[in-house]
Amino acid sequence: MTRTHGGDDYHLAVLVEEVVRCFEGAPEGEIFDGTLGAGGHAEALLDAYPACRVLGVDRDPEALAEARARLGRFGDRVRILHARFDEAAVAAGLTGPTLSGALLDLGISSHQIDEAERGFTFREGAPLDMRMEGAESGAGTAADLLNEWEEDRISRLLRSYGDEPRSRAIAREIVKRRAERPMERTEDLLAAIEAVYRRPPMAKEKARVFQALRIEVNDELGALERALPALRDALLPGGAFVVLSYHSLEDRRVKNAFREWSRACTCPPEIPVCVCRGEPLGTLLTRSIVRPSDAEIGANPRARSARLRAWRKAA
User: What is the spatial distance between Cα 173 and Cα 157, in angstroms, rounded to a whole number?
Assistant: First the structure.
Protein backbone atom coordinates (compact mmCIF):
# COMPACT_ATOMS: atom_id res chain seq x y z
CA MET A 1 0.00 0.00 0.00
CA THR A 2 1.32 3.44 -0.89
CA ARG A 3 1.86 5.59 2.17
CA THR A 4 1.94 9.37 2.50
CA HIS A 5 3.34 11.51 5.26
CA GLY A 6 -0.18 12.48 6.26
CA GLY A 7 -1.04 8.95 7.33
CA ASP A 8 -3.00 5.96 6.05
CA ASP A 9 -6.02 3.87 6.91
CA TYR A 10 -4.80 3.50 10.49
CA HIS A 11 -4.52 7.20 11.38
CA LEU A 12 -4.05 10.52 9.61
CA ALA A 13 -1.31 12.62 11.18
CA VAL A 14 -2.25 16.27 11.71
CA LEU A 15 -0.35 19.45 10.74
CA VAL A 16 2.53 17.40 9.32
CA GLU A 17 4.19 20.18 7.30
CA GLU A 18 3.89 22.62 10.19
CA VAL A 19 5.46 20.13 12.58
CA VAL A 20 8.38 19.47 10.23
CA ARG A 21 9.08 23.21 9.83
CA CYS A 22 9.38 23.65 13.58
CA PHE A 23 12.51 21.46 13.59
CA GLU A 24 14.36 23.55 11.02
CA GLY A 25 17.61 24.77 12.54
CA ALA A 26 17.61 22.23 15.35
CA PRO A 27 20.94 20.48 16.00
CA GLU A 28 21.51 17.18 14.23
CA GLY A 29 20.70 14.16 16.32
CA GLU A 30 17.77 12.21 17.70
CA ILE A 31 14.19 13.51 17.80
CA PHE A 32 11.95 12.09 20.50
CA ASP A 33 8.47 11.29 19.18
CA GLY A 34 6.64 10.57 22.42
CA THR A 35 3.33 9.69 20.79
CA LEU A 36 4.48 7.73 17.76
CA GLY A 37 1.07 6.41 16.73
CA ALA A 38 1.17 5.11 13.15
CA GLY A 39 4.43 6.99 12.50
CA GLY A 40 3.13 9.73 10.20
CA HIS A 41 5.04 12.58 11.84
CA ALA A 42 8.17 10.44 12.34
CA GLU A 43 8.20 9.42 8.67
CA ALA A 44 7.95 13.04 7.54
CA LEU A 45 10.78 14.11 9.86
CA LEU A 46 13.05 11.27 8.72
CA ASP A 47 12.40 12.14 5.07
CA ALA A 48 12.86 15.89 5.59
CA TYR A 49 16.05 15.69 7.67
CA PRO A 50 18.33 12.89 6.41
CA ALA A 51 20.77 13.36 9.29
CA CYS A 52 18.14 12.93 12.02
CA ARG A 53 17.17 9.85 13.93
CA VAL A 54 13.89 9.19 15.74
CA LEU A 55 13.20 7.63 19.12
CA GLY A 56 9.55 6.66 18.75
CA VAL A 57 7.53 5.96 21.87
CA ASP A 58 3.92 4.88 22.35
CA ARG A 59 1.88 3.17 25.06
CA ASP A 60 -0.38 1.42 22.53
CA PRO A 61 1.04 -1.93 21.28
CA GLU A 62 -1.18 -1.85 18.18
CA ALA A 63 0.18 1.55 17.19
CA LEU A 64 3.76 0.36 17.63
CA ALA A 65 3.16 -2.60 15.32
CA GLU A 66 1.82 -0.25 12.64
CA ALA A 67 4.72 2.17 13.10
CA ARG A 68 7.33 -0.60 12.83
CA ALA A 69 5.89 -1.64 9.46
CA ARG A 70 5.74 1.95 8.26
CA LEU A 71 9.20 3.02 9.39
CA GLY A 72 11.10 -0.16 8.65
CA ARG A 73 12.66 1.36 5.53
CA PHE A 74 14.68 3.76 7.70
CA GLY A 75 16.61 0.95 9.39
CA ASP A 76 18.72 1.93 12.39
CA ARG A 77 17.69 5.59 12.13
CA VAL A 78 14.62 4.59 14.16
CA ARG A 79 14.37 3.24 17.71
CA ILE A 80 10.92 2.19 18.91
CA LEU A 81 9.99 1.81 22.56
CA HIS A 82 6.80 0.63 24.27
CA ALA A 83 6.38 3.13 27.12
CA ARG A 84 4.46 6.16 28.32
CA PHE A 85 6.10 9.36 27.16
CA ASP A 86 6.61 10.61 30.73
CA GLU A 87 8.60 7.45 31.56
CA ALA A 88 10.39 6.95 28.25
CA ALA A 89 13.51 9.03 28.97
CA VAL A 90 14.47 6.68 31.79
CA ALA A 91 13.40 3.57 29.87
CA ALA A 92 15.50 4.62 26.86
CA GLY A 93 18.56 5.35 28.99
CA LEU A 94 18.68 9.06 28.16
CA THR A 95 20.95 11.02 30.49
CA GLY A 96 21.47 14.77 30.25
CA PRO A 97 20.77 16.88 27.15
CA THR A 98 20.89 14.42 24.24
CA LEU A 99 17.85 15.17 22.04
CA SER A 100 17.75 17.50 19.07
CA GLY A 101 13.98 17.76 19.38
CA ALA A 102 10.85 16.46 21.05
CA LEU A 103 7.33 15.98 19.71
CA LEU A 104 4.11 15.14 21.57
CA ASP A 105 0.89 14.56 19.64
CA LEU A 106 -1.62 14.26 22.47
CA GLY A 107 -5.09 12.76 22.50
CA ILE A 108 -6.20 9.56 20.80
CA SER A 109 -5.83 8.24 17.27
CA SER A 110 -8.52 7.64 14.70
CA HIS A 111 -7.85 3.91 14.98
CA GLN A 112 -8.46 3.94 18.72
CA ILE A 113 -11.77 5.73 18.17
CA ASP A 114 -12.84 3.46 15.32
CA GLU A 115 -11.99 0.15 17.03
CA ALA A 116 -15.08 -0.40 19.17
CA GLU A 117 -13.50 -2.88 21.58
CA ARG A 118 -11.09 -0.20 22.81
CA GLY A 119 -14.07 1.63 24.34
CA PHE A 120 -13.26 5.16 23.13
CA THR A 121 -16.24 5.30 20.78
CA PHE A 122 -19.78 6.55 21.41
CA ARG A 123 -21.18 3.61 19.45
CA GLU A 124 -23.38 1.25 21.43
CA GLY A 125 -22.09 -2.22 22.22
CA ALA A 126 -18.52 -1.20 23.07
CA PRO A 127 -17.01 -1.95 26.48
CA LEU A 128 -16.30 0.98 28.80
CA ASP A 129 -12.56 0.36 28.68
CA MET A 130 -10.59 3.40 27.37
CA ARG A 131 -7.14 2.10 28.37
CA MET A 132 -4.56 3.19 25.81
CA GLU A 133 -2.29 0.26 26.67
CA GLY A 134 -5.19 -2.17 26.27
CA ALA A 135 -6.16 -5.00 28.57
CA GLU A 136 -2.58 -6.18 29.05
CA SER A 137 -1.81 -3.11 31.17
CA GLY A 138 -3.84 -4.39 34.11
CA ALA A 139 -4.94 -0.83 34.87
CA GLY A 140 -8.47 0.11 35.87
CA THR A 141 -11.05 0.76 33.15
CA ALA A 142 -13.68 3.45 32.75
CA ALA A 143 -16.24 0.88 33.89
CA ASP A 144 -14.28 0.29 37.10
CA LEU A 145 -14.31 4.02 37.79
CA LEU A 146 -18.03 4.40 37.13
CA ASN A 147 -18.94 1.41 39.28
CA GLU A 148 -16.63 2.11 42.21
CA TRP A 149 -16.27 5.87 42.68
CA GLU A 150 -18.55 7.87 44.95
CA GLU A 151 -21.04 10.26 43.39
CA ASP A 152 -19.16 13.40 44.46
CA ARG A 153 -15.93 12.14 42.95
CA ILE A 154 -17.57 11.27 39.62
CA SER A 155 -19.22 14.69 39.55
CA ARG A 156 -15.93 16.49 40.17
CA LEU A 157 -14.25 14.47 37.44
CA LEU A 158 -16.91 15.29 34.84
CA ARG A 159 -16.78 18.97 35.76
CA SER A 160 -12.99 19.31 35.95
CA TYR A 161 -11.94 17.20 32.95
CA GLY A 162 -15.07 17.48 30.78
CA ASP A 163 -16.42 20.92 31.68
CA GLU A 164 -19.78 19.17 31.96
CA PRO A 165 -22.47 21.62 33.25
CA ARG A 166 -24.72 18.78 34.45
CA SER A 167 -21.97 16.80 36.12
CA ARG A 168 -23.84 16.44 39.41
CA ALA A 169 -27.02 15.13 37.79
CA ILE A 170 -25.13 12.71 35.54
CA ALA A 171 -23.12 11.37 38.47
CA ARG A 172 -26.30 10.87 40.45
CA GLU A 173 -27.92 9.02 37.54
CA ILE A 174 -24.87 6.78 37.12
CA VAL A 175 -24.92 5.82 40.81
CA LYS A 176 -28.66 5.12 40.67
CA ARG A 177 -28.36 2.91 37.59
CA ARG A 178 -25.33 0.95 38.74
CA ALA A 179 -27.25 -0.10 41.87
CA GLU A 180 -29.51 -2.09 39.54
CA ARG A 181 -26.92 -3.20 36.99
CA PRO A 182 -23.18 -2.46 36.65
CA MET A 183 -22.06 0.08 34.08
CA GLU A 184 -20.32 -2.13 31.53
CA ARG A 185 -20.89 -0.88 27.98
CA THR A 186 -21.24 2.42 26.18
CA GLU A 187 -25.03 2.16 26.00
CA ASP A 188 -25.17 2.03 29.82
CA LEU A 189 -23.38 5.37 30.08
CA LEU A 190 -25.22 6.92 27.15
CA ALA A 191 -28.56 5.99 28.74
CA ALA A 192 -27.56 7.80 31.94
CA ILE A 193 -26.60 10.94 29.98
CA GLU A 194 -29.83 10.78 27.98
CA ALA A 195 -31.91 10.47 31.16
CA VAL A 196 -30.38 13.70 32.49
CA TYR A 197 -30.78 15.66 29.26
CA ARG A 198 -34.23 14.11 28.63
CA ARG A 199 -33.37 13.66 24.97
CA PRO A 200 -30.68 11.92 22.94
CA PRO A 201 -27.44 13.74 23.81
CA MET A 202 -25.61 15.65 21.12
CA ALA A 203 -22.12 14.57 20.07
CA LYS A 204 -20.46 17.36 22.06
CA GLU A 205 -22.38 16.38 25.19
CA LYS A 206 -21.30 12.76 24.88
CA ALA A 207 -17.75 13.89 24.11
CA ARG A 208 -17.47 15.87 27.35
CA VAL A 209 -18.24 12.84 29.48
CA PHE A 210 -16.14 10.39 27.48
CA GLN A 211 -13.20 12.82 27.44
CA ALA A 212 -13.24 13.20 31.20
CA LEU A 213 -13.22 9.43 31.73
CA ARG A 214 -10.46 8.84 29.17
CA ILE A 215 -8.21 11.49 30.71
CA GLU A 216 -8.60 9.99 34.16
CA VAL A 217 -8.20 6.36 33.10
CA ASN A 218 -4.92 7.14 31.33
CA ASP A 219 -3.61 9.87 33.69
CA GLU A 220 -3.14 12.03 30.61
CA LEU A 221 -2.72 15.39 32.34
CA GLY A 222 -0.41 14.00 35.00
CA ALA A 223 1.77 12.39 32.34
CA LEU A 224 1.91 15.67 30.40
CA GLU A 225 2.89 17.71 33.46
CA ARG A 226 5.70 15.27 34.27
CA ALA A 227 6.91 15.01 30.68
CA LEU A 228 7.16 18.72 29.86
CA PRO A 229 10.10 19.63 32.16
CA ALA A 230 11.76 16.24 31.67
CA LEU A 231 11.83 16.59 27.89
CA ARG A 232 12.89 20.26 28.11
CA ASP A 233 15.92 19.21 30.15
CA ALA A 234 16.71 16.40 27.70
CA LEU A 235 16.99 18.82 24.75
CA LEU A 236 20.33 19.92 23.40
CA PRO A 237 20.89 23.69 23.10
CA GLY A 238 18.84 24.87 20.14
CA GLY A 239 16.56 21.85 20.30
CA ALA A 240 12.90 22.26 19.37
CA PHE A 241 9.89 21.12 21.43
CA VAL A 242 6.58 20.73 19.57
CA VAL A 243 3.23 19.80 21.12
CA LEU A 244 -0.08 19.10 19.41
CA SER A 245 -3.03 19.24 21.78
CA TYR A 246 -6.75 18.77 21.21
CA HIS A 247 -8.54 20.41 24.12
CA SER A 248 -7.99 23.37 26.43
CA LEU A 249 -6.90 21.32 29.45
CA GLU A 250 -3.83 20.09 27.57
CA ASP A 251 -3.19 23.31 25.66
CA ARG A 252 -3.30 25.48 28.79
CA ARG A 253 -0.55 23.42 30.43
CA VAL A 254 1.63 23.56 27.33
CA LYS A 255 1.06 27.30 26.83
CA ASN A 256 1.90 28.12 30.45
CA ALA A 257 5.03 25.96 30.44
CA PHE A 258 6.40 27.38 27.18
CA ARG A 259 5.70 30.96 28.28
CA GLU A 260 7.27 30.48 31.70
CA TRP A 261 10.39 28.95 30.17
CA SER A 262 10.66 31.94 27.81
CA ARG A 263 10.65 34.54 30.59
CA ALA A 264 13.90 36.03 31.87
CA CYS A 265 12.60 36.42 35.41
CA THR A 266 10.03 34.29 37.21
CA CYS A 267 10.23 35.98 40.61
CA PRO A 268 6.99 37.20 42.23
CA PRO A 269 6.45 40.96 41.73
CA GLU A 270 6.85 41.69 45.47
CA ILE A 271 10.52 40.58 45.39
CA PRO A 272 12.61 43.70 44.57
CA VAL A 273 15.76 41.85 43.45
CA CYS A 274 15.75 38.92 41.06
CA VAL A 275 16.68 35.67 42.78
CA CYS A 276 15.63 33.23 40.05
CA ARG A 277 17.55 32.06 37.01
CA GLY A 278 17.63 35.60 35.55
CA GLU A 279 17.52 34.54 31.92
CA PRO A 280 15.07 32.71 29.65
CA LEU A 281 15.52 29.00 29.07
CA GLY A 282 14.49 29.45 25.44
CA THR A 283 12.16 31.23 23.07
CA LEU A 284 8.69 30.67 21.66
CA LEU A 285 8.59 29.46 18.07
CA THR A 286 4.83 30.06 17.93
CA ARG A 287 3.44 33.24 19.46
CA SER A 288 -0.07 31.85 19.24
CA ILE A 289 -1.55 28.47 18.43
CA VAL A 290 -1.26 27.08 14.92
CA ARG A 291 -4.41 25.40 13.64
CA PRO A 292 -5.08 23.18 10.60
CA SER A 293 -6.12 24.84 7.37
CA ASP A 294 -9.65 24.59 6.03
CA ALA A 295 -8.34 22.22 3.39
CA GLU A 296 -6.84 19.87 5.97
CA ILE A 297 -10.02 19.90 8.04
CA GLY A 298 -12.02 19.17 4.90
CA ALA A 299 -9.84 16.12 4.22
CA ASN A 300 -9.71 15.05 7.86
CA PRO A 301 -12.54 16.49 10.01
CA ARG A 302 -10.98 15.05 13.17
CA ALA A 303 -8.12 17.54 12.74
CA ARG A 304 -10.39 20.51 13.50
CA SER A 305 -9.56 20.68 17.22
CA ALA A 306 -5.76 20.38 16.81
CA ARG A 307 -3.59 23.16 18.25
CA LEU A 308 0.17 23.33 17.73
CA ARG A 309 2.64 25.15 19.97
CA ALA A 310 6.43 25.10 19.65
CA TRP A 311 9.41 26.26 21.70
CA ARG A 312 13.19 26.29 21.17
CA LYS A 313 15.76 25.77 23.92
CA ALA A 314 18.37 28.49 24.27
CA ALA A 315 21.57 27.83 22.34
Answer: 15
Q: Render 101-167 in DSSP notation, one character per residue.
A: EEEEE-S--HHHHH-GGGS-S-STT-BS---TT-GGG-PPPHHHHHHHS-HHHHHHHHHHHH--TTH
| pTM as predicted | 0.88
Neighbours of 260 (CB within 10 A): 11
**E-state strands within the chain:** 30-33, 53-58, 78-82, 99-105, 235-245, 282-284, 307-313
Written out in words, the top-level CATH class of the domain with range 139-217 is mainly alpha
16-111+220-313 folds as Rossmann fold (3.40.50)
Q: Are 187 and 210 in contact (CB under 8 A)?
A: no
Q: What is the pLDDT of residues 133-173, one digit of tens each?
A: 766 666 799 999 999 999 999 999 999 999 999 999 999 99
Q: Could you give the strand order of the β-sheet that contains 282-284, starting from the edge strand earlier in sequence?
A: 78-82, 53-58, 30-33, 99-105, 235-245, 307-313, 282-284
> Among residues 65, 67, 22, which one has the least CA distance to residue 45?
22
Q: Is the dihedral of CA 303, 214, 252, 97 positive or negative?
A: negative
Q: Angle between the 61-71 and 40-48 helix axes, to the nearest 10 degrees?
A: 30
C-alpha 276/C-alpha 279 separation (Å) is 8
